[in-house]
Design brief:
Blueprint lengths: L1 E3 L2 E3 L16 H15 L9 H15 L6 E4 L2 H11 L5 E5 L8 H4 L7 E5 L4 H4 L5 E5 L11 H7 L2 E5 L16 E5 L11 E5 L44 H15 L3 H18 L9 E4 L4 H7 L5 E3 L2 E5 L6 H11 L6
Helix pairs in contact: 1-7, 2-7, 8-10, 9-10
């Protein structure tokens, strides 16, 4: 058991896979377990989970820098991006980074039947090329290698921007509210279970989004919109809500307010400090990201064999540092990759 930022984490040494699955603080895991216990004994009612949905929405909104009324709650990033993709005009020209995570690209590519085009460019070209397109869809931090987008440059282009912040929220202390749409999932550095995602919508961008998954929970009062017409959706971003995955919302309602209360710069410096320390000890330059991608022979196999939990992404070993990681994790990586070089 480790203690980090005032909470306990049941995380083993060498766990560097938070870019795939974040580990919850013990109190959040206990909240989810208690909720499951109530369910298994017949003690739960659907409205009991509404407060968790509200709390999670408010927490995520604060982390990305928007008002909760602008935030829709869904289940997955691709589902929420799909609402935008369904609403963009015929013939929209979309610009993406080559090799982008497909939840940020496939929903737009699936609109090719109505003339929507998706163009891939190298990351270094994104800002320069953006003014020639109608919309940019990009991850604030790339899943494959941890590269951080030039957010200031994108903002200055004036092109509409959809930001996927799944690999950024929780360690990158940046407000994203300037973007037209900001989307992110629950299970990385947000440290909640998989099954929730949120989408922030700028009022100026509401003309390019459609409630194609309209449902009872998107109603002005969900418990009065369970049956019958007419259509009566909420008058804010809740009109794009999906009915919640209950236990995920319980976990997110625990972790998000706690994350909001932390010194975000301290969290960033901790995560990035460990990542850049690892890079330095491997004779690599600092990159300022919590994700480290290693193009070394058999790196993933050697790391996994030494008890380091990591991922294989884009042909490389991907390691991710979260607030519960320590120098012990760095030492274990070095011992696996450069025996005798642990300092």
């Amino acid at each position: 058991m480790r203690t980090a930022f005032g909470q306990q984490f049941d995380v083993p040494t060498g766990y560097l896979n938070s870019a795939s699955i974040g580990i919850p603080p013990a109190f959040a895991a206990d909240e989810v377990a208690s909720s499951v216990d109530r369910w298994r004994s017949g003690g739960s009612n659907p409205p009991d989970f509404d407060a968790a949905v509200v709390t999670a929405r408010e927490g995520w909104a604060r982390l990305v820098g928007v008002h909760p009324d602008r935030v829709a709650s869904g289940a997955a990033v691709s589902q929420l991006v799909g609402l935008v993709a369904a609403g963009i005009p015929d013939g929209t020209r979309v610009l993406v980074v080559r090799g982008e995570f497909t939840s940020a690209t496939f929903p737009f590519a699936a609109q090719a039947h109505r003339g929507v085009t998706v163009t891939e460019v190298d990351p270094a070209e994104l800002v320069e090329r953006a003014p020639g397109f109608d919309l940019v869809s990009v991850s604030a931090v790339q899943s494959a290698d941890g590269a951080i987008a030039d957010l200031d440059g994108l903002r200055a282009t004036g092109t509409r921007v959809l930001l996927d912040v799944t690999q950024a929220v929780g360690w990158l202390p940046v407000e994203f509210g300037w973007a037209d749409w900001v989307v992110g999932a629950s299970y990385k550095w947000v440290l909640a279970p998989r099954g929730a995602a949120w989408l922030a919508v700028r009022p100026e961008a509401e003309d390019w989004i459609r409630p194609v998954a309209a449902n009872w929970y998107a109603g002005q009062d969900p418990w009065d919109t369970v049956y019958g017409l007419p259509l009566r959706l909420a008058d804010n971003a809740r009109a794009y809500d999906l009915a919640p995955v209950w236990f995920t919302q319980v976990g997110a309602a625990a972790t998000l307010p706690w994350l909001v209360g932390l010194d975000r710069r301290a969290v960033h410096d901790h995560c990035v400090g460990l990542a850049d320390d690892l890079r330095a000890r491997l004779d690599l330059p600092p990159r300022g990201s919590a994700i480290v991608s290693l193009d070394l022979p058999d790196a993933a196999e050697r790391l996994l064999g030494a008890g380091v939990r990591c991922s294989r992404r884009a042909g490389r070993a991907r390691l991710a540092f979260a607030l519960y990681n320590t120098i012990e994790d760095v030492d274990r990586v070095i011992a696996a990759l450069r025996p005798g070089r642990v300092e």
